[in-house]
Protein: NADH-quinone oxidoreductase subunit F
Amino acid sequence: MTLTSFGPANLIKRSPETHPLTWRLRDDAEPVWFDEYQAKNGYAAARKAFADMAQDDIVQTVKDAGLKGRGGAGFPTGVKWGLMPKDESINIRYLLCNADEMEPNTWKDRMLMEQLPHLLIEGMLISARALKTYRGYIFLRGEYTTAAKHLNRAVEEAKAAGLLGKNILGSGFDFELFVHTGAGRYICGEETALINSLEGRRANPRSKPPFPAAVGVWGKPTCVNNVETLCNVPAIIADGVDWYKSLAREGSEDMGTKLMGFSGKVKNPGLWELPFGVTARELFEDYAGGMRDGYTLKAWQPGGAGTGFLLPEHLDAQMYAGGIGKVGTRMGTGLAMAVDNTVNMVSLLRNMEQFFARESCGFCTPCRDGLPWSVKLLMALENGEGREGDIETLLGLVGFLGPGKTFCAHAPGAVEPLGSAIKYFRSEFEAGIAPTSAAVPPLARPIVVGA
Structure:
């Protein structure tokens, strides 16, 4: 897998008009540092925002463009920005970049930070101006050591150019930016758990309301946005709302482009910037090249381990939130995974649920106890030691850990692939039930703590 695999040359012709996120990338995959970035029209959007736009106009422009969060939830960015307080007496506000990219099968933000660090800095600078935040943090996954090195260098370059620090571009506006590496917890991708971790606390999600826009880092108004989300801001400011909306395919309710990818046993695994509304079949066949010789597509996930499985007949779905929603799951991060015909779904789900159980913060009972319970049942089915009623128990857990049943979205995301796998491949789960097993009533099988 390469972070610079952008598909067949005849399909990819990156330009500022069609690829606002990736057109500046170098063919040798080396970082685009300050001088080259500026030569490629870098920081022009920031200069425009500071010289020609009122702060509220920046917020309204992003809102009108229809930019939505690219981390998986898809919340409208301009609406989120609008939640920040208008009271001018509140002079301490924070902007946080969620770069804790720990979703399995997702590496889009890593590519942006390693190869285009100044694009993220420019996006944060414009966002800070709009939100009146005086300090920003890039909360970075601890394992992303190369990204940390490149971001820190880019921050120093921006400081030296007068684009970070005091009185930026003579505007009287101050903005400091820091790179903060996390300790490696999946739950830190939840914005309030990220805030707790940044404060030096245990990474547990917070009760909402109050939302971070009112009470965030150290009790102050805070806005949290994903890396890819912030990287879209400069192009919107530079080229306008109508242009940005025109990038998406007809039928898509999401605007602009999206970093999408395909992994698994495909011929050309990689990452591409494509318009919202492209079909999953185009992504799979034209860009990823279909399955390798000797393998067939059994199932696929559209956007990370926390999204439901789909079948080959679902490949005609359009890649945007509503398009994937029509076939029964979520788009998530937009980086798909192909499951080939050699994979046993019970083993795959056992592996996934082990990950999610380990990464639970343990704060609420359904997640803390329910996910290990699912692992025990899946291990039994995987080893041919399952009992009658185990599948019904798993489906019961899918319901008990679903949306609105737990403190945050960790458990609902964890059980979504489990429910879909049983729906489409129930026979593989049934094959794990021992022939002489006694029936067990649903949800009656106990968990042995520490076993």
Observations:
- The chain has a mean pLDDT of 91.
- The first helix runs from residue 34 to 39.
